[in-house]
Amino acid sequence: MKKTLTLLLTLLLVLPSWAAPKRSYIIGFYNLENLFDTYHDEGKNDYEYLPDGGNAWTEVKYEKKLHNMASVIRAMHDENKAWHAILGVSEIENRHVLEDLVAQPEIMEANYQIIHYDGPDRRGVDVALFYKPELFTVLESRSIPFDFNSERIEFAMNEEEQAYFRTRDILMVRGMLGDEMFAFFVAHLPSRIGGKGQDLRSRGGEIMYEESVKLMEQYPGIKIVAMGDMNDNPTDDSMAVYMHGREKIEEVGPMDFFSPFVSMLKAGYGSLAYRGEWNIYDILVVNANLVKAPAGSLTIRPIVKRKFYGRVFSTPWMRQDEGIYKGQPKRTFSNGVFVNGYSDHFPTYILVSNK
């Protein structure tokens, strides 16, 4: 009997990594394009999204918007035969709209839990994280404010303008995905309106990178995914220089990030159209610990044509089917008219698996 037990223990110890059960997780991001409720939040400039505001934002329109957002999330589930383990979102007004969204019948069964902090953005939009509690255990979360404490970036704003400036905080959530430690950053970097803000977006990338380095030093081996609407392409300075995003896996150093949407952008993929040109502003990047993971542990996997490590998700019903915006994401409003669309961004995601 003792010999049999010894043999079984020996076999368990020497089992190859490929014999371990397969674990796969979808990690994604979706800009929900102005998911506002119909009530005023004190101190926020949300007046256009009130029943008597510029968009005549009624409960009927709000409920249609919730249904549409949930329909997209459900469609991704149906394609992948699995819910996202982690889904970062942006352009949401408050926790109330998040609770309404996860309660929609299309996605209620996912049992998404919410991490959200009220941020300082003057318009009142924040970022947040949905997670499946049976897959991800939260250890800590915090809201990281934007600051101008950079030694490398020269800012266009003077000190008075900097003191007045408000933008979205960056959300950081650390926890256990299965039995491995992960950290997720969710960002919505400053706008391109007026052709400005490259310095601000670069600082946003720099903040995420600095915070990532702290985590990697404190928790050796931690796997990190930074995601968000960066208002930049993955080839722009915020991502390529200040976030240390690399196009090719072999280029990724120990403190670098792999940027899977660079090659997709070059191949013609896009998550939104800006001034008639396709871009990928909805970006996920992963650190070296995730992209060069030990055998048998979670690593990023190719999911499009067995070549690309990212996915821009769209369906015909998510696209405008006529007019000057034909083929582009079907947004909620077009030229000021409610068209019952989805978002002006397509969602993006990656797959991590141990096989």
A few lines on this structure:
With 355 residues, this protein is of the alpha+beta class. 24% of the residues lie in helices and 26% in strands. Strands 1, 2, 3, 4, 14, 15 and 18 form a 7-stranded mixed sheet that branches. Strands 5-6-7-8-13-10-9 form a 7-stranded mixed sheet. The chain has a two-stranded antiparallel ribbon with strand order 11-12.
Characterization of the model:
The chain is of the alpha+beta class. Helix content is 24%, strand content 26%. The strands form four sheets. Strands 1, 2, 3, 4, 14, 15 and 18 form a seven-stranded mixed sheet that branches. A seven-stranded mixed sheet has the order 5-6-7-8-13-10-9. Helix 2 crosses helix 3. The longest helix is centred in the first third of the chain and has 22 residues, at 59-80. 43% of the residues are buried. Residues 5-15 have low confidence and may be disordered.
